[in-house]
Specification:
It contains 22 helices and 41 strands. The protein is of the alpha/beta class and 890 residues long. Among the domains are: 336 residues, 3-Layer(aba) Sandwich (Rossmann fold); 139 residues, Sandwich (Jelly Rolls), CATH 2.60.120.380; 115 residues, Immunoglobulin-like (Sandwich), CATH 2.60.40. The strands form eleven sheets. Strands 17, 18, 19, 20, 22, 24, 25 and 27 form an eight-stranded antiparallel sheet that branches.
Length: 890
């Protein structure tokens, strides 16, 4: 009996062992199989819901709730800080605060959950922004993108990208939503700072240098915004109606190049529409052009919230489900949303079978391909200690300083006021940006920020600095009335705010549709109505209650917002603007007694939409700018040289109608210059600034851009001559914003380009920048004066440092097709080299031109090289041409 039992036990053991050995991992988990086979196998195992979630990306983490993530997800944007004390202690030896290591550990935890606790074990792609440094705590922040472009140094940009890649990759982040490859042809656009400038060739070279470092290290880049994100008037996300020629010549080249040459594996669509179709659901753009003609094999993501934008903004879809159907079938692969709870709006289209399953499978295949290529199924984890070591590494910080100094552009240097002699007794540093370090858009907080003040004091000591804060960057003339001063009696109790009565007509008539308490009259109903029961463009509202005076005296109170309002105060009509015309600000003076409550009634109607409305006053505004200027003048008078810092306000959805320095900064500059002291102006910003009112009053001007976390030290090197400035403008500076859009590579006008009261010439041209030394150009030679249409020519010239100090020169090569079958630009950048020369040193600079540089689109939009003469121009800017010669193509 025992033997039988033994045999039976052995048999059971053999059977169970055989079953175990026959249980194999599915093919998609086999790293030895081709990626395509793994993708097909995994795709065939997925439910529709699992496919949907692979197409959905959001900010977040496991705090959303594991039960909500059981079907998987494309990926998360992680924003953790150094909140884990154990982690911080663990990596203290590496000199980190724990932020980077904490994020690495959190991403590891996320990957572990999705690999081990979801049905199919599909890892995520953690993503983040990294425009000029990872936009998270602990990461090194380099100069802004427009500043990197102004270095005209592709090797330096590669080094910067390599450093950012290291800080990104070691945290476990495997996709960045960068860089911006949009062409900045209108400097009024608030996002010019994020770009590489106005020229497709320069943008392409910068984009290739930046993207290559990430992609070869296994971090997916997402160039954006496909295809153009700025329309008429320099306004963000405005609709564009560009013909295919313009797109191919100006807006497509950089995108096409980084897909085909640098291997960029993702792309982000723009919010706006192209010829009437939202870019997020533009089949010609996403399928025909991108995926079919260019052979793009990566995945397309929407800008945040843009997938539903078709119905919210463009009115080309009836609802979110229809917008989702349109976008996915047109070629969108991933929907980027800012909130997990938005998913039902998009899932509806999948659940109801509205979206072609072939489009879904294609999108999911592209996403899975990327995840397999990144090795996330086998090796998704990172070493948190490495993240702690590399984020904010001292070599990266030194590189940030180097990039800052190489990016700065010397715009004016009258009587060689610059560089400043360190032995000068006193230097006045004046302005808001002296001690404030502004890093620019899409930036993390940086590490140990070095202000301009700190950078200068590191050179000459604080005792030699006379500091004055100057005037504020953007003067506030009034502020919204806070809720603490607005009172309503509700059920016998006093509550903050005013009683609001909303009507579904524009006459304040009939029964109210909505009644509520609005704590503050500060609304921006640009996309939505005040309430779900009201139309966004057909309503009226009456606010009633009391306003409490904060102090005794006369001050101004009124409305900033859409026309169609009136206001009663203390029973009297003080503002009557009951008409629809524009957006206005009307304030009236009123005598208040501290603590006294006054009856207030405001009425407003909206019949066109896009409403903004604020109750404002100047009760807390102190207009002391004249005193601030007087203080700055006193400091300047006691100095040997005065350095005035002035800046602009800009950013995403912060376009500028006016390009002059805001507030009273121009008055500050003029007052300081009037002292007779040598005056240098340092400009902080990411776009062009007009200077007609003060440029002739000052001796020197430096464009410092947003110089990064170590920019103060980089600036000081330039100011005192430890570094010779060689930054060159990647955008054109107009004399006046009325010239915009203004760019160097326009086509012939057919007549003239001047105004009767202003020329068409810029203040500072594309490619412009001065040096502390001088350079001579000579010996322009071609390897052959005549080439075939498929031939290549080598072009050389000699550059000599003819000045008294060593320095860099940016040698720029432009071409012009002398006679073509279609109009060609008057000048096109086709090459550049940044070289360093010692005093008296000469170097031969070489360029190559071939079919890629000489080709054009003919009348049928076919790319050809036409026979004829090409003018080859080499110089120090697009206006400063030093050498020229004719190349003939036969």
């Amino acid at each position: 009996m025992k033997n039988i039992l033994k045999i039976s036990g052995l048999g059971l053991f053999l059977i169970s062992t055989l079953a175990f050995t026959e249980k194999k991992d599915p093919p998609y988990k086999n790293p030895k199989l081709p990626v395509a086979e793994r993708v097909n196998d995994l795709l065939g195992r997925m439910t529709l819901e699992e496919k949907f979630w692979q197409m959905f990306m959001i900010p977040g983490d496991l705090n959303i709730g594991k039960d909500k993530l059981k079907h998987g997800i494309f990926g998360f944007q992680i924003s953790s800080k150094g909140k884990n004390d154990n982690v911080a202690e663990q990596i203290m030896d590496y000199g980190s605060t724990g932020t980077a290591a904490n994020m690495a550990n959190e991403i590891n935890e996320l990957q572990k959950y999705f690999l081990e606790e979801t049905r199919l074990g599909i890892p995520i792609i953690p993503f983040n922004e990294a425009l000029h440094g990872l936009a998270r705590d602990g990461a090194t922040i380099f100069p802004q993108a427009i500043a990197l472009a102004s270095t005209w140094d592709t090797d330096l940009v590669s080094d910067v990208a390599s450093a950012i890649t290291k800080e990104t990759r070691t945290r476990g982040i495997r996709q960045i939503l960068s860089p911006v490859l949009n062409i900045a042809r209108d400097v009024r656009w608030g996002r010019v700072e994020e770009t590489y400038g106005e020229d497709p060739y320069l943008t392409t070279q910068m984009g290739l240098s930046f993207i290559s470092q990430f992609e070869k290290s296994g971090v997916i880049t997402t160039p954006k915004h496909f295809v153009a994100n700025v329309g008429a008037g320099g306004r963000d996300s405005y609709p564009i109606s560009f013909n295919e020629r313009l797109l191919e010549e100006i807006y497509f080249p950089a995108f096409k190049a980084v897909f085909q040459k640098a291997g960029a594996r993702s792309v982000m669509t723009s919010y706006n529409s192209l010829d009437g179709t939202p870019c997020t659901s533009n089949e010609w753009l996403l399928r025909t052009k991108l995926k079919e003609q260019w052979g793009f094999n990566g995945f397309v993501i929407s800008d945040a919230g843009a997938t539903g934008g078709a119905n919210v903004l463009h009115f080309t879809a009836a609802n979110y489900a229809e917008a989702t159907e349109d976008a996915v079938e047109a070629g969108l692969d991933v929907m980027f949303q800012t909130n997990y709870n938005h998913f039902p709006l998009f899932w509806e289209a999948y659940k109801n079978g509205m979206v072609d399953i072939k489009a879904v499978d294609e999108a999911v295949s592209r996403i899975l391909t990327a995840k397999f290529e990144l090795g996330l199924f086998e090796n998704p984890y990172v070493d948190a200690k490495e993240a702690a070591v590399w984020n904010g590494h001292k070599t990266h910080r030194e590189l940030a300083k180097k990039a800052a100094s190489k990016a700065m552009v010397l715009l004016k240097n009258k009587n060689e006021i610059l560089p400043i002699n360190k032995s000068s007794k006193k230097i006045a540093l004046i302005g808001y940006d002296v001690k404030k370090v502004r890093l620019g858009g899409y930036s993390g907080p940086g590490n140990e920020l070095v202000s301009m003040y700190k950078g200068v004091s590191n050179k000459i000591g604080e005792e030699n600095i006379l500091y004055a804060p100057g005037v504020v960057l953007k003067e506030q003339k009034y502020l919204p009335v806070a809720s603490t001063f607005l009172i309503t009696n509700s059920d016998g109790k006093k509550v903050e705010g005013l009683k609001a009565t909303y009507f579904d007509n524009i006459k304040l008539s009939g029964q109210p549709k909505v009644e509520r308490i609005d704590k503050q009259i500060k609304f921006g109903w640009t996309l939505y109505a005040p309430h779900k029961d009201l139309d966004y463009d057909w309503f009226s509202v009456r606010w009633t209650g009391k306003i409490k005076a904060p102090k005794t005296g006369k001050f101004n109170i009124g409305i900033e917002g859409n026309d169609g309002y009136r206001m009663y105060l203390d029973g009297k009509l003080i503002i009557d603007n009951w008409q629809k015309q524009s957006y206005t600000t009307i304030l009236k003076e009123f005598s208040f007694e501290a603590g006294k409550e006054y009856d207030i009634k405001i009425e407003f109607f909206e019949s066109a939409g896009n409403a903004k409305f604020k109750l404002v006053w100047d009760a807390f505004i102190e207009n002391n700018w004249q005193q601030q200027i007087a203080e700055a003048v006193l400091k300047a008078e006691k100095s040997d040289v005065a350095v005035v810092f002035a800046g602009i306000h800009e950013g995403e959805f912060q376009d500028r109608a006016l390009l002059a320095l805001p507030g009273h900064q121009e008055a500050l500059i003029k007052a300081v210059a009037k002292t007779g002291k040598p005056t240098v102006v340092v400009l902080v910003g990411g776009s062009a600034i007009t200077m007609a009112n003060w440029i002739n009053d000052v001796d020197g001007i430096i464009m410092a851009w947003y110089a990064g976390e170590n920019g103060g030290n980089g600036f000081a090197d330039i100011l005192f001559g430890d570094e010779n400035p060689a930054g060159r403008l990647p955008i054109t500076f107009p004399v006046d914003e009325a010239q915009c859009p203004l760019y160097y590579n326009n086509k012939p006008t057919g007549r003239g380009d001047n105004y009767h009261n202003l020329t068409g010439q810029p203040l500072f041209p594309f490619g412009y920048g001065l040096s502390y030394t001088s350079f001579e150009y000579s010996n322009l030679e071609f390897s052959s004066n005549t080439i075939s249409v498929d031939g290549t020519v080598e072009i050389t010239c000699t550059i000599k440092n003819s000045g008294s100090v060593a320095g860099d020169e940016v040698v720029q090569l432009y071409i012009r097709d002398e006679l073509a079958s279609v109009a060609r630009p008057i000048k096109e950048l086709k090459g550049f080299k940044r070289i360093n020369l010692k005093v008296g040193e000469s170097k031969k600079v070489k360029f190559k031109l071939g079919p890629e540089e000489l080709s054009m689109l003919d009348k049928d939009l076919k790319r050809v090289v036409e026979a004829g003469d090409f003018r080859i121009m080499i110089g120090a800017s697009s206006k400063d041409i030093r050498l020229r010669k004719i190349l003939t193509v036969k």
